Amino acid sequence: MEESRSPEQRKADALAKLHATHADVWVASSSADGVAHLVPLSFAWDGEHLVLATEPDALTTRNILAAGRARLGLGGTRDVVMIDAVLARTVPAADAGDVADGYAAQADWDPRSAGGDFVFTLLRPERIQVWREVNEIAGRTIMRRGRWTV
Amino acid sequence: MEESRSPEQRKADALAKLHATHADVWVASSSADGVAHLVPLSFAWDGEHLVLATEPDALTTRNILAAGRARLGLGGTRDVVMIDAVLARTVPAADAGDVADGYAAQADWDPRSAGGDFVFTLLRPERIQVWREVNEIAGRTIMRRGRWTV
Q1: Residue B62 has pLDDT above 90, yes or no
Q2: Among A91, A93, A121, B40, whose CB has the most other CB atoms within 10 angstroms?
């Protein structure tokens, strides 16, 4: 097991994962009646929001619109950045301008030219937890109520 | 992008991931009022059930008991085995016998000697989907209603 990281190092590592190009995030959402959904998706980070691109009728889109939230896992199972996020807004791909440009640059995939109908979902992190193994469970929370604790 | 795998190959790859030692699974569950939870956990596979070991008051335990189901992601975001599973039963760690032995052997961690209070949750897959990238979305379902399609 590696040594436990400092809060500062965990924040730096989380930001590195948020800025990674051509990466995916595990997106957990739930229907109103409590059926969990999980799917890996491309994403971008605009400095404030984690940005997803999905089809309007996809389960993930409908769940996040209804619940107003999602839980997102970045990285591997033993090098996790876990994000509880709330829905900020959605924008149809065709109207997304800078959001779409930023997404295409980071995700290396442009929903505007993918054919089909896509919507961008902007999620604002409220809590971010960063851990690798058991020795990093303590001190794993580096954002609370939307504010970095470090 | 690699070539699309045959259904037989996908099943073989899924079984290899289910039998992997010292591995983790992403577990998505939901509260009754539709708040999704997600966490990586050690697991074992007994040939019929995916076995988790959690503390009784953990959110994952309570969600799965209430909903009777979970969605589980094995592997990486671009080499996924996605499992929709229903709760078969739970067993307190101290009474788990063979289940506990099998878990300890595969997970390389024994909840019985970990201190604290653990319960095993046995989840029976109903649907299993296996894909790497876009070219494998078609044909990704290799188990439906609890039966292998291949």
Answers
A1: yes
A2: A121
pLDDT at A123 over 90: yes
The amino acid occupying position A63 is N
> What does the pLDDT look like over A130-145, one tens digit per residue?
999 989 999 999 999 9
Mean pLDDT in residue range A33-47: 97
Report the Cα–Cα distance between both ends of chain A, in Å, rounded: 24
Residues in chain A: 150
B33 contacts on A by Cβ (under 8 Å): 34
**Residue B72 · residue B85 · CB < 8 Å:** yes
Contact A84, A65 (CB under 8 A): no
* CB-based contacts of B1-6 (< 8 A; 24+ apart in sequence): B1/B132, B1/B133, B1/B134, B1/B135, B2/B132, B2/B133, B3/B135, B4/B135, B4/B136, B4/B138, B4/B139, B5/B130, B5/B132, B5/B136
Cβ of B36 within 8 Å of Cβ of A24? The answer is no
State the pLDDT confidence band at B53, using cuts at 50, 70 and 90.
Answer: very high
Answer whether residue B2 shows pLDDT above 90.
no
| B137 near A CB under 8 A | no
Q: What is the pLDDT of residue A93?
A: 93
Strands B44-45 and B36-42: unpaired
Does residue B35 sit at the A interface (CB-CB below 8 Å)? yes
pLDDT band (50, 70, 90) for residue A53:
very high
